Amino acid sequence: MAGAATTRVFFALWPDTAAASRLHALARQLHARLGGRLMREDTLHATLAFIGDIAPERVADLRVAADAVQAPGFELAFDESGCWRHNHIAYLGMRRIPQALHGLQSDLAARLREAGFRLEARPFSPHITLLRKAECAGMSKEKEKENPATEPVGWSVRDFVLVKSSISANGSRYEQIGRWPLL
Ligand code: ATP
Ligand code: MG
Question: Which of 28, 39, 77, 98 has the greatest CB tally within 10 Å of its CB?
């Protein structure tokens, strides 16, 4: 259903520039071992709810759903790295999902479903994609978890954003088209 008549969108948590820089440093370290395609620093994010390709008129309904979300800000810390062999994605994840993140994601997801958007049934697995087409064999076993840094890398989450994704010559291009502050 992708095409000129649709808009590809998702909700995400976006790191501040200092966090993005630390995340990218970890990505470069992983890239040295696993190869693949390094995500650009200004594109690093954690997807909160993937909507996919929708009619542009439906974006207004996404905004209404997001307006209704009431959730407090929280600290986010990514404390493990891994590589999914089935899709060759090297990522940062977290051992434990903070309650506040769970609350935000489930509140947003419930409101989106109420508005008729079909979301993934899979359990939420917050992560930041660092590499595509990574050679996961560089990590010894499937989904091996490693400590990516001496300190967890994260940021203070104060808002969430709606992002439009479009295809460009050098991969997906992202444009923030909405931002909602947390309490
Ligand atoms: P590309 O697909 O061009 O390699 P991309 O995956 O970053 O780039 P999108 O496919 O638009 O761009 O995805 C936007 C975000 O949503 C990414 O973080 C991606 O991992 C996530 N995403 C994509 N498809 C799904 C899906 N089916 N379920 C959950 N998250 C998804
Ligand atoms: Mg994709």
Answer: 39
